[in-house]
Structure formats: C-alpha cells, structure tokens
TrEMBL record, chains A, B:
Residue stretches making up the TauD/TfdA-like domain: 104-354
Record carries keyword Oxidoreductase: yes
Keyword Electron transport part of the UniProt annotation: no
Superkingdom in the source lineage: Bacteria
Gene3D superfamilies, sorted: 3.30.2020.30, Clavaminate synthase-like
Keywords, sorted A to Z: Dioxygenase, Iron, Metal-binding, Oxidoreductase
Occurrences of domain Gamma-butyrobetaine hydroxylase-like N-terminal (ranges): 8-85
CDD domains reported in the protein's UniProt record: CAS_like
Cofactor(s) required, per the database record: L-ascorbate; Fe(2+)
Molecular functions (GO terms): 2-oxoglutarate-dependent dioxygenase activity; metal ion binding
Protein's name in the database: Gamma-butyrobetaine hydroxylase
Family affiliation: Belongs to the gamma-BBH/TMLD family.
Length: 372, 372
C-alpha cells in the first residue's frame, strides 16, 4: 500500500501496483474481523448498532495491516492488507470471467471424459479431476459400475447426498403399465431437461445402465448452453424473449400437482448462462400477454429447431455397467425408441438419481482445498 | 360463444358475455388436445412438425366445441369452449391477484392458528384447513406433539418428504461444543432466514420443542413480507436496490462450502413477494460496483432497522410438545439467549426439519381436489 486518503464516506487507497481502491466506511465497519464468530466464521456484528454516518477519524497502515479509529465507539479495527486487496470492489479490481464451462457439439464424442468406477471410489484426486471435467463439459461416463441396486447411489454419494423428488431419491427407467410419465414407456423420448416444473430442477443426473438388451434405445444428449449461444448469436430477440417471459411449468398425477413459473432460459446479470428449462412435456399452457404470444411462440419454436439440429446431438448406446452423469440444467437427454428383435429380449433398465448443483460445487471446492 | 373471425395469425372470438379473446394459431395448434398423452397428460406434440405460418382455413363452433381445419396437414382440431374461455390470455381475461398471503405484525399473537396433533394426523380436512392457514400467515402451532425423535418428522411427512441439506434431514438445536453455526450455542439468535446460501432456501420449517427448561430461550418471529411492504411504502429506492443487486451468500465448515448469489428480496414480475433472503450470519463480503456500495449498505441497514422494530416481532416461549411451522422464506425466526437459573436446568432442545414450498403447495392442491 502506498497512500491512503480519508474521504467523506469512504477511504481511498493507492496500492504499490498503481491500482486504486475505494472502501466505504459502512463496508469496512461491517467487515471488521472482530465481528465474526471465531469458531463458526459467521458474522455476529449488528449493523444497526452503528449510525449510517460512521466514518474513520484516523487511519494508519504498516507492511501488513490497515488500522482505523472510528467517529463513534471505542472500538478500533485492523484489516490484513492482503484481504483488502483481494476483496476490493473498485473498477481497477473488476473480476474477469471465471466460467469454466466449455460448450460442445458432436465433436465431444471423441473426447468424452471417462473414469473407471474403482478409481473414482478409491482415489480422491481421481474424484476431483472427474468433478472438474464434469463441470466443464456437463457430461461424463463412468465405466464398470457394479450392476447392483446400489451402483448408482454409491457413485452419487461420493459427491453428496441425493436430491429427493416426487419420483423418490432413486428411480428406475423401464417400461411400466399405466406410466405416470413418458420416460416409463418404450417410446422415443425427445431431448429434454428433467423436472422443469420444480422451483429448481435437479442438478446433476446419474443414469446407470443395468440392462440394455433391446433394438434401439440409444441415449441422446445435447449441450443446451451450446445451442443457446447459437440462438443468442443468430436471433438475439428470440434469446431475449426466452430469458425474460415466464411460462407456467407443471407435473401432475394422482398424488402430486407441482407447479412453478419460470423463463425457458436463465442467465445471470453478466449474461452468463445459468440454466435451460426445456421440456415440451412439462410446459403448461402459455399465458403471457396477447401482444407477446405470437413472437414468443416463434422464439420457442426456433429454439426447438436448434435443439433438433444434428450438429448438436450425440447418440450413445449404453451397455450394462455404464453410468452417465450430466448437468440436468444444461445438458438435455433423450433416447431412441426400443423394442425386442432378433437376439434382443427388448429389456432395458436404467437406474437414476440426482445430486444438486450447489452440493456438487461444494464438494469440488472442499476437494480443491487439498488439490489446488 | 357468439362470433369468430379468422385473422392472419390468430382467431378472434367474441363470447356471449361481451369479452373478446384472441387465440394465436401456433398456440391453438400446440394445445390441440390430441397432442397430449392420454395417460400421463404430458405434451407429445412436436412444434417443429408444423410451419411457423400455420393458420386456420376453416373454423366452426357449436354449443360446446370449436373446430379448426388447418392450412397444412390433414389433422383437424377440436377444443372445448369452456377450456378456451378458461385459458384465454387477452386483456379482457386478465387474471386478478390470487395471492392468499396476509401479512402480520404483533397483532397475530391473539389469533395464531393452532391445531391438535391428533386431529392433524387423523383427519385430512383438518390437515387441509391447517395448510391453508399456514400458507396465509406463514406460521402456525401444533399442540401436543409426542416428545419422541419422530414427532417432528411425523408432522412434516403428513405434508411431504423432507428437504435434506448439509445439516441432514433432521437437525437438533441445542448447545454443542465446537458449534459449526450460531444456532448450536446458548446465545441469542437474531431474526433470520435459514440457509440463504442455498440456491433455494428450505421452504417450510418445523421446530418441535422437546425440552425448554431454561431461563430465557423464547422463540421470536417476524413476518418478512410485512416488513418489506413497510420498506416498499416508505423507501421505494431502498426496496428497489434490495430487489435488484445480488450479493454473495455462503456457509462453510470443514466438510462443505456452499455458495450462491442472490438478491435480498425476490419479487415476481407483478411485484408480488416471493421470498426474503435475510441472514446477517450468511451474507458474504459485499462486492457490488463501487458506485452502488454506499447506497446498498444504507438500504440494507434500513431493512435491518425495520426487522428489529418491536411492531413486527412476536415472542413465544415454547413448551415440550409444541411444534411451530413457519414459511422459512418469508417468516424470520430467532431466539433469546438462555441459561440455567433457579428452578431451571438450562436445558433446551428443539428438533427441526424442512419441507419445500413446491411440495407443500402440491399437497394443498391435491387435497383441494377433494375439499373445494
């Protein structure tokens, strides 16, 4: 640190590298290290115990620390300079894009990240590298997962606990009589995101193939983020409508009626994609203003056309012991129809579960303490 | 229905009550009843199989049904007139505010909705009425819940399955050595929303009092929605900042590091409140643009002052067998400090769990099929 300057509502600091940072007095007082619980690290300081006009009356610094005496109260604050530098929020300190996501089209087929079940279960570094790869591309295969009821949950629990839904914590995808959703038939399933009718759709999905002794039944995937970028480039107005107009989403059967409203695409304030909520089965009757209905339908249809574009769709036939993990809020999945045929019994059985995105990311961060 | 008129991209309908509805051709084709799975009721129709310019070439109606022949394909559509009326989206059909929420201050103490455990467990109508009351005020008490480990989950499971978090599916609130959060001490807990660091904080919270043999330890509650309305009325600019500027939220310990970014207040596109995300313990270091930092802090502090205003806070001492349910995304909770004293052992033990809002609402809708 080179110089500091006491302004009316903030402290201005010039650092040795020439960068200038402003720290507002309210921010400084609220972040005084003495205000955090020593064991839980949670903030205990109560902002209402100081006036909105609190300011520094004196401030000095040495090689490692900045000291402040305040206009009210006897308390003095001390901040590590390194902490201040790292948490500065002035224009000179604008964070650059830290997204690790790499969108893909069909070229991913040749470089799909794979890991062996045994490595994953026994080696934390293999787990860490796998999680990083999954976060990057949103899809990966695990090979040689034991074909037991617990195979899929053993893999998922290496990351975190399971996300429960109205379908349970674990679900079996196979043909059933009187199916409550289209997955439980032998028909083709077009590409979709699972459970968009939930306030937050499940994060990462795990599908473990126990049997796939059928003609057809290939799994299909497409990177929703790749497709959205294509839409944003070629039809920004359609992209904008899908990001801003909410539609009703719903699943219902005899036991449940789960509804939400959301946009089809969610991006954050910097335009970075957060999620695609695309499932033609589960969008309810559109009800936006009359003035927007036609252009919304045209935008939605344009997205659907892109989703069916062969440039983006990969097709993989799973065999017993394969497990696919994918980011259910980014990568759409589907399957081709399947049936019995010469040499095929027609049996197909996948077992699946979910782990939410925040628990996945938490695991990655905690492993990162050790491996980065 | 009185008249219909084929326009270029839509059908205009005049109803007997004078209301006029426009139905766009894309909307009509997409909602043709033939496009839904007869058993699952999910949409099977693929919008990309028709052109964006599809239109009706002929349309007639009788007492109950509207018929359409299309410009492409041999398919003809038939719609129930009642369904069309109910799903019309033109200005004449603007939905009025259907919110059932009633905000409260301290006056609620005299009319807090209560239900007996036995009634709740045995009678679906009692359950239905209770859920409606809980949705309305965001808080209610259940009396005489058996003081067993399962008491709280038995009540919660009457509604739905439990929301699991990094604290488990069930948590015990009592003093612990080396606490990982402030709740597990005997200190006062200021009003807060639980787990704002989650992408969606848990919905309804259940707290079952097993022991409260302490001096102090009263539970405190305040209706966040009532307080936000006060802020919106008295300082719309502060309200706007808290609705639009995102801040980092975080919980971390040795096992987890769960983060999200969100606004402190969430309202929907019509201005209806969705949630308050207020927890001073769990907001991380603010990092918005320098130009907004000071005014954001002033807005946040103003909200904090209102939250501590005695007009809004109720205080209730729970006794063994009491269970409080509250909407954790609306109603803040806290507690006074507790200690041993004459005639008090100082023991205090609450057991808690969560059910998410969408599962709560689903249960209410499904019971409503029978009772409304």
């Amino acid at each position: 640190m080179e110089t500091l300057n006491l302004l009316e509502r903030s402290l201005e600091v010039k650092w040795s590298d020439g960068k200038v940072a402003t720290f507002h007095y309210l921010w400084l007082r609220d972040n005084c290290p003495s205000g955090f619980h020593p064991s839980t690290q949670e903030r205990l300081f109560n902002l209402t115990t100081i006036s909105p006009d609190i300011h520094a009356v004196n401030s000095t610094f040495d090689k490692s620390t900045l000291y402040i005496s305040w206009s009210e109260g006897a308390h003095k604050s001390a901040y590590r300079l390194q902490w201040l530098y790292e948490n500065a929020y002035s224009p000179d300190f604008k964070k650059t894009d830290t997204s690790v996501i790499v969108p893909w089209g069909t070229e991913i087929l040749n470089k799909l990240y794979e890991v062996e079940y045994n490595d994953l279960m026994q080696d934390d570094l293999a787990l860490f590298n796998w999680l990083k790869a999954v976060q990057k591309s949103g899809i990966s295969y695990v090979r040689n997962v034991p074909c037991t009821d617990e195979g899929v949950t053993d893999v998922a629990n290496r990351i975190s606990f399971l996300r429960q839904t109205n379908f349970g914590t674990v679900f079996d995808v196979q043909s059933k009589p009187n199916p409550i959703n289209n997955a439980y038939t032998s028909e083709a399933l077009p590409l979709h995101i699972d459970l968009i009718n939930q306030e937050i759709p499940p994060g990462y999905q795990f599908l473990h193939c126990l049997v796939n002794d059928s003609r057809g039944g290939e799994s299909t995937y497409a990177d929703g983020f790749r497709i959205i970028e294509e839409l944003r480039d070629t039809d920004p107005e359609a992209f904008h409508l899908l990001c801003t107009v909410t539609v009703p989403m719903r699943f219902h059967d005899t036991e449940t009626d789960i509804r939400t409203r959301n946009t089809i695409i969610n991006a954050d304030e910097n335009g970075q994609l957060v999620e695609l909520r695309y499932s033609p089965h589960l969008v309810d009757t559109f009800d936006m203003d009359e003035s927007m209905m036609d252009s919304f339908y045209l935008a939605f249809r344009k997205l659907m056309v892109l989703i069916n574009d062969p440039r983006f769709v990969i097709s993989v036939k799973m065999k017993s012991g394969d497990l696919c993990i994918f980011d259910n809020r980014r990568v759409m999945h589907g399957r081709n129809a399947f049936e019995a045929g010469e040499g095929y019994s027609g049996a197909r059985h996948l077992r699946g579960c979910y782990v939410d995105r925040s628990d996945f990311e938490s695991r990655l961060r905690v492993l990162g303490r050790k491996y980065t």
